[in-house]
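To whoever is on call:

I kicked off a structure prediction for a single chain this morning and the downstream step that reads the tokens threw a length-mismatch warning. I double-checked the sequence; it's 72 residues and nothing unusual in it as far as I can see. Pasting both halves so you can look.
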Amino acid sequence: PEFAKVEAKPLLDGIEIKATPAEIQLGGKLYVNNCVFCHGVPGVGGGRIPNLGYSAKEKIQDLHKYVLEGVL
């Protein structure tokens, strides 16, 4: 089969993370257990929907509202 061509984009940069190293480690585990199947491996891709690591800063500035508050 023909593979879809993916345009290389720069990884997300410039987001300030206000979390402890333990919280970041826990977040990574939660991502792998719940999100990686659709969004892909951070910095690598492979999911069926956009890899958030390649999103524009403006698009994920309020990510917590979507993940934790169900804005959609």
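Update from on-call: the warning came from a stale cache, not from the record. Cleared it. Sanity check on the structure: The radius of gyration is 13 Å.
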